[in-house]
Amino acid sequence: MELKIARSHTDKKPKKVDVDKIEGMVEKEGSVILYFDRENSHKDLLALQEHFENEGKSVYMREVRFGLADNEYMYEVHIL
């Protein structure tokens, strides 16, 4: 499964990351905070959460708004 990382600028396309790379980051760091783009489906983010919870990790996810427009948000995911 590939997810899109949050954009650094609103006019650029988001970069993609796969679950294997995220697993490597979690193993190396112990816990990570990732920001995902609004173009990700909520279903994919819930699948990511379920994947790490099945491995015994705690996952916290929330929507972060950075502007007043409806499309100015991203997802923040903490994996511990």
Q: How many structural domains?
A: 1
Q: Which strand-content bin applies to the residues?
A: 25-35%
Contiguous low-pLDDT stretches (5 residues minimum) are none
Q: How is the biggest beta sheet arranged?
A: 3 strands, antiparallel
Strand order of the largest sheet: 3-5-4
Whole-number average pLDDT?
A: 94
SS field, number of helical segments: 2
Overall geometry? globular
Order of helices and strands: EEHEHEE
Secondary-structure-based class equals alpha+beta
Amount of helix: 25-40%
Distance between the termini: 20 Å
Radius of gyration: 13 Å
Number of DSSP-assigned strands: 5
Domain HP0268: 1-80
Organism: Sulfurimonas diazotrophicus
Pfam families: HP0268
Protein name: HP0268 family nuclease
